[in-house]
């Protein structure tokens, strides 16, 4: 590339050849790539060329316009695609679509008439689907053997088979890549979802899924089901709080109810989840054994053992070695640090209490609360550090599939957060065995965390909203500048404004943090339920506002995230189930340790036998829990039958097709036999 | 049917029409149906007609010869099938066969050339496969709406959709239905399998599977792997026995080793099992959701929700009602009886000990052992009764699928036998807390059971062998009579002799009892391993002889069983895993209760804390066990990859086929367009 002219004009030249299939409706940008202001021109042009080059030359074959922002010298690529290109992408990515027979089948262009909605190709894919298809195509532009480095960046080495765009992103040559909001659709969705008048209505889960994809849809469905499931324990908590019924059975009954209830909730969610994913056609996607590797999975270029296609290969022993030799020791050290900090806190607290006991006064009273404050801050800092460590370790392990990458990350985060947040509760409950302290600790931590969370989640959106309207004004001023500096004339000016606004919006970090928050809350509610019966009420109140503030943020505050498909809540289901098992142990132990309860037993039972009795009870509860989980089918009967019918019918259809093909062949042969003269023309 | 002539002549008439496809090689009987001597002639002829009638008329379309035994007035039907009929059966039963592409696909006659071994249709199916196909076809002769009762038996009502042959068998009009041995093949197999010179060789698992089917193949594979897995604990047991190393760690170390080892063994078996079933092509048969119902599943004739085909339908709530209202109470009562009998035993023993202590003498010494003897006899009787009860309850529950019928039966048997055999051990170990008594009890029960078992399994075959040779002589004498009385002249006389001999052989009861025996043995070895380290050695010695005596029985003593397919050891895997979990609990408790071990702990630890420490250890071990089981994949990597490749390649092939079909269509249309005149002939 010897030319040094402005990128835009280059685009226009290429664009013309792509105008044909696009139709007359003007260019509709769907995904935006934003370069840093200091991006090297050669790097921009190289990526641009790759985006536009045909598939056969390793490109993505997409439509691109350039937008140059005069005020900050940034270049943006607005990316669109023709319908034909999207159909091809859907076929290559083995997307499942609803077939005329009512079931989901892998889409092929060949059979497009057989799929529901194919009579109007414009609306055949939702906007979210289009953006997802395009993202995958952009991510799948991989470096060839000859691409040694990014043009203009001698130091940014490329490895064959590795995703190019991920390199641009990781080296911050491209600052961000995001899909654009659909202003019309988001307005309608928001009205239904977070408007106060719909406060007591169920969330429009299917519409959420349509706009944000299955993964976010499942998160909000889970949040909803979980919140509803908190009502019974919250009611009991209120009754306990207002009535004066004091009995030794009080806590035990509540704990037993909670153990049963948490099992029912988790089993119920699993069933509801499989209903949803069945309706969305993603229920059996998890069984796909030949998924494409993650975009930034690296390794030497080899062959996939299943498909035989070239792809990066990374030996499993290396991953195991990294896991056992790096991840495990690092995590152990981190958890050990968390434990030491907790011990340090209790030592400080002990010291402060001593000082206060000797010298009661205003300043000393304050001093008593200083250690707790320090500890709270430290936990927060540690949580932040651990999150980064978990991500680094997980990247380092180089998992091949998106799903396994995410599962491993979730497991690490869960372990860190569980230890970090709950270790002091366990210490108080079972080492110090101080019931009063446990109660105050539990209520303080839960309430503090939720108040802080509420402020962060309900107030911050307000601030964002104000900031955003200011941005809007800025953008309006800037518009003229934009218009003069760009040569993407066929892009709607309103769309350009929207692009500039959205590029300044915050990025949604994924459902990980949201789930983690629920996970910790679930732990606070169920782990020590006999110690703090009001926990469920607090959690419930928190969640009903959280749903709406989360919804508002999704619609108005964040950049639109790329839709991701999901077949279940995956590792989170396991995580919540583990909390369920641990809560059996903790609650049995708490009740068993209660001196009031121990008094109930016949006086000739020795202390050891008391313990043994409670251990036996605990084992029975665990066994019953396991049996219940085993006997309740994970999938509702109607979904099972429908899935079986789908399998059966597709098999029947296949057989019929084979039969028909054979008959055609036979008929042709017969004809050829009857009239030997026409044989050559027939076959 | 007004004719009263002998059945045989009727057969001959029908037979002629079936001679065509059979070829010139004479009639080869594969399956035998034996009527009782008092069977009504009309019933025999009706079944005969059903067996021969074409599929379209509800028959089985098989080849049948009649054999009338003069000496006991019994009628036998010798059943064979043409190759075409077997191919059709294989297609209807959706049998999977190895395809040219190396994978297993459902067999279709259409694509027969694509399947391995199809160039020689005679040997395309093994004899075991042929017999299995025929059995299914015979069982699938179902009563039509007009078949009210079995002809000649006004009182034997038939229900539409119910298997006719099962009714004949249950009312003992047909005494037995069995496949014939292949004398040549069984001789070769036996030589390899149980001859003393091959004592230290591995079992010929693949050949066993070929002759007896996957289910029996898996049993012997499991028995082999399990026996080998006993070597390390047996060696340690010997070392413990011969060395004088006495330490408090002794039992604890052994128990820990056993816990780890049993987990590794069970996970290892799961992986090996999936390798075997992958190679045999049955690995994913368990996922089939539209299996045919069990032959004696009953209900009103309705429609299958999946396939839409007519089949008996039985509402699920009825099954649940029967389970909760009948099965659960009956089982509870049975277990309660077992408990009462155990208490009675200890009461008797106590009384006998008292008498002996007061009055030591010969007769009183004998008296001390009387209660144990009575208890042993009672356990044996109870086991027998419970087995019958379990079967009755299971039949009553009316499960739809063979697999679920068997799983439920296995669960019931396991529960009964576990409680019956182990309840006294638990009582001694944890209620009486008498270590010496536990040790003697455990060794007595294990050794007694195995000695009795060895006598039964090693001596009885000898006796059978002698009885059988006598039968052979009888049969030889009888031969002339047989020949005179039958009109199945195209059956080889030697085969007729064989049939008579085999009809008198014992019936193999299935793998259930064999697994149950191993299950109990596994329990004796691992549940209380710290109390009796030599258990593994005893079990090992027992099993290496058991393998050979079982093999001998399979080949020489029993009637050939029908081959059954299996994708895994199913409920047994779960049962062994449950024993593994329970053994963690029992061993931790045993070690924790050991006063020697307790002395090791610092003296300032209170008794309660000792218990708590051991409970904590136990929980950790269980958690580690769960984690290990979770992280070791159930299927070896190579099998996973191969299965994924199979899925991928079949998908690719399907796509290619569709493409080709479309191209053909396009080409035809084009031609039609070019030469409009020939259009009518072309399409």
Automatic annotation (TrEMBL), chains A, B:
Pfam families reported for this sequence: Anoctamin
Membrane topology recorded in Swiss-Prot or TrEMBL: Multi-pass membrane protein
Entry keyword Isomerase: no
Subcellular location: Membrane
InterPro entries: Anoctamin (IPR007632), Anoctamin_TM (IPR049452)
Record-annotated Anoctamin transmembrane domain positions: 208-645
GO annotations of cellular component type: plasma membrane
Molecular function as annotated in GO: chloride channel activity
Membrane-traversing stretches: 216-242, 248-269, 323-347, 367-386, 409-432, 518-541, 574-593, 605-632
Keywords from the UniProt entry: Membrane, Transmembrane, Transmembrane helix
Oxidoreductase as UniProt keyword: no
Family under the similarity heading: Belongs to the anoctamin family.
Record's protein name: Anoctamin
